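Dear Dr. L.,

I hope this message finds you well. Following up on our conversation about the binding site, I have prepared a predicted three-dimensional model of the protein together with pyridoxal-5'-phosphate. For your records, I am including the exact sequence and ligand specification that went into the calculation, followed by the structure tokens. Please feel free to forward this to your student if that is useful.
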Amino acid sequence: MVTKRVKEISYAIREIAAVANEVAKSGKQIYHLNIGDPVIYDFNTPKYISQALADATFEGKNNYVDSLGVPELREEISKLVSRSYKINVTMDDVLATSGVTEGIFFLVAALIENKNEFLIPGPSYPLYINYTKFFDGIPVEYELDENNGWEPNIEDLRKKITEKTKAILISSPNNPTGVMYSEKMIKNIIDIAGEHDLPIISDEIYDQILYDKPFTSPASLSKDVPIIGMNGFSKSHIATGWRLGYLYYHDPENKLEELKEVIAKMARARLSASSVAQYAAVEILKNPGTHTAEMVKKLKERRDYSYGRLRKIEGISCVKSNGAFYLFPKLDFNEFRKWKDDKDFVIDLLETTGICIVYGSGFGEFGKGHVRFTFLPDLDILEEVYNLFENFLK
Ligand code: PLP
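The resulting structure of the complex is given below.
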């Protein structure tokens, strides 16, 4: 009765949460280290931002708005992007989306069909794999090399380009590794994209959640290769449930006109992104506040603590992340013979201890043998979690 394409969608991050709900029925406490949502921990959406959303609704801004986004918001985003990356983006290059999620959907829908290939990092955020398959394409993963701090393996990327390749994804800082690509690697990828006349899609959702060095923007490094950037308000502005993001086009040689037009068509067909969230986002951009910096400060402590605990465990090796809120350790199955793979490990951990993390194979081929921990909970909870985790391994 239902389609194969939908049956095949799989999203490990939420699927493991369904198993956790079953385990919770037995009365066990569940430690949710699976979902990258700061709002469900001790990070609250700042009051002035919530107030802006409430004001918008009480002022009657509850109608469908421009399909491309509220002009004032598009203007503010274009100023932010132009200023931050020293490029020239106007409001005509900006589209408001229902989260980065919808931006990914639009782009993959517009670029991929008939077994065309989307070159994405491996491991990768699962949506890229899902939507590419959904639109009858093939997600081709270029290796992020764990032995080189999760940097892209540029030779692997180069050799995976074929005449079917339609775009290259840069996802930096990456989910699930939590690591930002180096400037040198981003330049290399831009050069390769230029040689093959391919656009780059840049997922920048974690651009402000960085611990050790500032964000490297692909658009700021590209003179001619078109870059389609995606970002949003979910993570940096602690508003995951608002479902608001945006796309911007850095297109110095006007190569994206057709793509922009078909994406605008899709945007019109879905009417508009949330009106009130967009008005509130204008307030955020005009008055950015200090919440992001405060969140990053707390998260840095939690990253250091979690990494410190993981690295001491026999049979586990872990690259220290420098962004987002994830650590993606590798399990040595010679040491952990009891479990047959990462999924088996994660389910047993959940059922035995209540700790809910995500199996690495949910992030594609290169994720196998790993698990993803978030470090969003506070230090007391993290301490409990890692004590339980160590006992479980014993
Ligand atoms: N891109 C990456 C890399 C993510 O990790 C996430 C959410 O975890 C998203 C996009 C989705 O973001 P949004 O809430 O803006 O749809």
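In brief: The first strand starts at residue 31 and ends at 32.

With kind regards,
A. P.
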